[in-house]
Amino acid sequence: MQPSPPAANRSPLSRSRRTIALWADKPLWMLIPCALALIVIVFLPVIATLYLSILDLDISTLREWVTAPIIGLANFAAAFESNNVLGVSALQSLGVSLGFSLLTTAAVTPIGILAAIAAHRHFRGRGIVRAIFLIPYVIPTFAVALLARIMFLNNTGFVPQVLAALGLSSIDTYWLIGPNAFWALTFTDIWATWPFIYLMVLAGLQTVPREHFEAATIDGAGPFRKLFGIVLPQLRNVLALAVLLSTLNHFGNFTLAFVMFSSPPPDSAAVLPLATYFYAFTSFEYGLASAIAVLTMVVLIVPGYFYIRMTRIANRIE
Amino acid sequence: MTTLQSPSESARKATKDQHVPASTRGRRWKPQDVDRMLPAWISRLVVIACLGAVLIPVGYMLLLSVTPDSKVALGEVGFTNLAFGNYVTMWAEAPLASGLLNTILIAGTSSLLSVLLGSLAAYPLARWKFRGQKTFLYSLIGTQTVPGTTILLPLFVIFSWIQTVVGIQFIGSYHAIILTYMTFGLPLSTWLMVNYMRTIPRELEEAAFVDGCTRVSALFRVILPLAAPAMVVAFVFAFLVGWNDVLFASVLTRSETHTLAVAVEQFANNAAGTGIPLYGQLMAAGVVSSVPVVLLYLLLQRRMVQGLSAGSMTGV
What we know:
The complex is a heterodimer of chains A (318) and B (316). By secondary structure, chain A is mainly α. In chain A, 65% of the residues lie in helices and 0% in strands. Chain B has 316 residues and is mostly helical. The radius of gyration of chain B is 29 Å and the shape is globular. At the A-B interface, helix 1, helix 2, helix 4, helix 5 and helix 6 of A face helix 2, helix 3, helix 5, helix 6 and helix 7 of B.
């Protein structure tokens, strides 16, 4: 990007003094509405969460939250107890969330890569195939959750029926309550999100020069050798970013679990976003909910930092 | 010492090795196999498996949506006894119509504002260099890593505090939810507009300035008309924020301002509790919520996919 218009290659006469003044004066006021909205709706709440988490705040003291008593880390202590209303300690929720986001990412990454490679080269009907591959990702999450609610029903649902027909599990298996809920949630999320990795890899594949394939072919490399020796190393950055973003998105995913199980969720599917929501809007313990929100943010600091670093905005501005 | 090969002979061999195509050295290859990364049969298998994995549940959803509620409850799903009536009765069963209207109003307004404010912010970001520019762009990206659940409660507290101080009903109003969705649409809108404006030559504004335009009129009369394709994509993505969200709407709207997503979510909770669960109608509602989005993506596939990768890949 040029700091100022290239003036060297044109005669000074062609640029009026006014034009130069217009370029020299930066209209930074244009940033104000955008910045104000982000500050009020995103940044202030993030800071407020930190403060709320040390308050003794519930529905009766909400109106006077500014004067609510500070109780230090008691909310955090309460969050880690397991005999609370939700019946799941924050540590268990953290475990469920980590397990869920890492497992789904570990599953969608190879599926997405394979699908992208298979849909990359030209074949008849490729356009239709690529369009169909997008569908699970673009259907609203709440609609996917509705479908899952019905497909995983014991006895009458499609999934138990198929599993029973294959002899893998009893048709009367409960998938939406109890320990299996975690697997229903994970499986549904994998179904809904693999196209994200697929899209990122497909976009990345367009940037691999054909010459590299030609050189590898001359050297006698087979398809797998090209994949692991040439393509994947070149897509390293794209993949790392996609995997990181995918993990962040899965970790923060509220809608799928909320619509699948409602609030309160089964213990096995009590991910951190759902635990936060439960304390905030089902049992109205605002301080406790904020403590869990803070915990969520602390866990996300490291991957979030790497994500922002990897987007390399700095290099683009120079 | 015996020479096994004459120098000329080994030289000939070396040149032969370099110039003879690989096909004569055992492994045969065809031109179309040059960029093949998987053996053909695996590739075909992957495509078929993924198609099945996508189409079976989607097909099942469509089938459920035209199956009578009682049949769904019994697990008797088939192609006999199709009940297209689900698509009619569901509107009376749950406040889906008002939800749909609210969604169009809320998501429509918030995305318009989002594109407007995003374009306004994008102009100086794309055209000038200034202190704090990086910080601004980084915080745009940074907002994407903050999960909604961590913002919702403090936002709710702040909004209800404003309510108490100012004495107006803010939570549950269109204003609160529109303001919220507008802000969530802003980072991607701004980013898409910055990327697009960088491709518009500065000479066009130069000409506009010479013709007497100010920077604001140059933005609105010259730059934005040219950036229309990017604005459409930004609008659609911002619109989908409101269309897809359940979290914020479930807290920041009341029954008169419920969006379609919340209406459907509550329908799902009620539908399971009734004597005969209204699963057929529920699926019809799910299909109605999905079809517009899927159609939008299919119609604008190229641009939407570019927008998706721009939103997440940003710098790469």
